Amino acid sequence: MARESLTKKRVRIEEILTILKEEFPDAHCELTHRNQFELLVATILSAQCTDKRVNMVTPALFERFPTAEAMAQGPLAEIEELVRSTGFYRNKAKNIKAMAETVTLEFDSVIPYDLDKLVKLPGVGRKTANVLLGEYDVAVGVVVDTHVQRITRLLKLVTGKDAVKIERELMKIVPREDWALFAHLMIWHGRKTCIARRPQCAECELVPLCPSGLVV
What we know:
By secondary structure, this protein is mainly alpha-helical.
């Protein structure tokens, strides 16, 4: 495929968005949460774990530790036991407890709406920060998870493999008002049709817009 200009990529991505918005009108974050603190914890737990599994774990976790202050004061061993089934539970428990301690001590128990401050919290990387900011209508970037990386590379919308580089490329071509929604659409499309090990290209409405369609 010849090198595609940013202008042409923007046109193509508008078409892609139109199709996916029609296919997934209810696309949204599937991590169950009631506030910013719960979403931040759930997103940390979702690393290398399904949203479904996280949603099975968090009700008991948040019943026991409903706030940053409560989580900060919680016994690490008890937190570990509550999140054990999400995998890598010792590291995750350590991170969510340390994150809660930092939020309590440095931010008066209020999750900061600032990317630079968020990524300094234990266990919070750029992807996690973007999930939170996008969900609460202050998106400053595009969430780049494994689905987004894989599908945008198949669509030849990006050239990099590094998540930060991919995000920067996407920010140049995805309309800003769709930054938060874009990842949800990619994730839902990846789970239903563009499945990693068995892409359903024959059933995919994006094939005419996908240079990798039918040959992945």
